[in-house]
From TrEMBL:
Organism per entry: Fusarium oxysporum (Fusarium vascular wilt)
Membrane topology of this protein: Multi-pass membrane protein
GO terms for MF: transmembrane transporter activity
Identification of the protein by name: Choline transport protein
Lineage: Eukaryota, Fungi, Dikarya, Ascomycota, Pezizomycotina
Localization of this protein: Membrane
Main location (coarse class): membrane
Transmembrane annotation, as ranges: 26-47, 59-77, 89-117, 123-143
Keyword tags: Membrane, Transmembrane, Transmembrane helix, Transport
The keyword Transport is assigned to this record: yes
């Protein structure tokens, strides 16, 4: 992620971490920053297990939200907007989406409860604080820098050449099974 942020940023400091090592062919600087962050984050457990658990629980909730957002969109907008596909669950798909929305909502609420009773400052679950704090930071960044974000540079001609050579896209074999995307009109 560090490398992706560095690659897409116009900031000079971030560009330093976007460098790809010529000899190894990998973003060594970004990997070292990620490793250092993980090591420091692991040390947080020794300082405060409450803070560590709050961050881990918040990450779990946010990860679950990334799974349930597309399912919720399908649940409320319907599947008619999707292209035809090889596998269709029919009415069972609607049930799966509804169950996922319910399950993620219930688990997210339960993960915000304190782990023990009586609740004290040292045993409080600060997950909701972390979630709303991060949401506030994301909203601020969205409204302040969101309009200037360009996204990654994509070489469409190279992707089309790879697709024409059969290296990506239709007919590519994954784990010995040939996968074919639905034909486009």
């Amino acid at each position: 992620m560090v490398w992706a942020f560095a690659r897409d940023s116009d900031n000079v400091v971030w560009k330093y971490f976007a460098h790809i090592d010529v000899e190894k062919g990998i973003p060594v600087r970004a990997m070292l920053v990620s490793a250092a962050f993980c090591a420091l984050y692991g040390l947080l457990y020794f300082a405060s297990s409450t803070a560590f658990n709050s961050i881990v629980t918040s990450a779990t909730i946010y990860l679950n939200l990334t799974y349930v957002i597309p399912q919720t969109i399908l649940l409320f907008r319907g599947r008619s907007l999707l292209p035809t596909r090889v596998l269709s669950l029919g009415p069972l798909g609607w049930f799966c989406n509804a169950f996922s929305l319910f399950a993620v909502s219930a688990v997210s609420i339960l993960l915000c409860f304190p782990p023990i009773i009586p609740v004290e400052v040292s045993s409080m679950n600060y997950t909701s604080v972390v979630i709303f704090g991060l949401a506030a930071i994301v909203m601020i960044l969205w409204f302040t820098t969101g309009k200037s974000f360009r996204g990654p540079d994509v070489d469409v001609e190279a992707i089309e050449a790879l697709a024409a050579a059969g290296l990506v896209g239709r007919g590519r074999k994954f784990s010995g099974v040939e996968w074919r995307a639905p034909k486009e009109d």
